[in-house]
Design brief:
This protein is mainly α and 189 residues long. It has helices at 2-15, 20-23, 29-35, 37-53, 63-91, 95-124, 129-155, 159-188.
Amino acid sequence: MQNIRQKLLGVLELHLFMRRGVERFTASRRDMALSFIVPALLFPVAMAGVFMASRPEIAGLSAGEVIALYTVRKIAVMVLSLYIFYAVGKALDRHEEFIRFITISNWSDLGGLVVGLPVYISMALHQEWMSTYGLFTVVSFYSLAVFGYTVMRAFRLSWEMGVVAAAVGLAIGQTSLQMLFYCAQRMTA
């Protein structure tokens, strides 16, 4: 229980841009493996958000098809991101930091959920997308800043490299989303 409390405190500190947040996570392979439970448990919440958003790009698909597409997207993004950050860790000779980074990233999904709650609530209340879009944009930029800060601290890099990492994360996420919409369009055609 103490271990979980330390991880939650680390997530909070990272979301407040505090240096100590990274130190609360270990570079242990066991902790890394166990950390994958967090995104797995939060995946149904993310799927609820997908269905609440009711994007026109996926309107013609069944619930099973939407879940399958988003599951494939989540796995593909995770694998590609892990590969890229593994390459960075290897190039910089920081393998232990890579293991710690994975653990932090998985636990940070909880922080992302909390930060994104206003957007989820707005969608659940069936607010117009344009009224939610501003909030969504602020939450997205904040999440990117936290991600860049986490990469910077976990790999002990300059802030410029943290910004590059955030840009790479954004590119991966947006490209995968566009690919998902393309697949959805092909499936309904």
